[in-house]
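Fold it.
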Amino acid sequence: MRMSRNATHSCMERTRSVNGLALQGGGAYAAFTAGALKAMFSAERGLLRPAAIRSISGTSGGALNALLLGVGIHE
């Protein structure tokens, strides 16, 4: 089945919409997540817009990343 260009564009737009982020704990996971979030929010890549995020949660190191991300979004 072939999709029209408008339908494909609509699907792509929906995948860029983020309702919430749940960040995993653990030293290595927290370090990896911090780097991944930095890359996703970087101006050059523009993969994720702060306005697209409605909620952020995390455990352990993920909670620290969530806190720092939340503060960074609202500055």
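Residues 1-12 have pLDDT under 50 and may be disordered.
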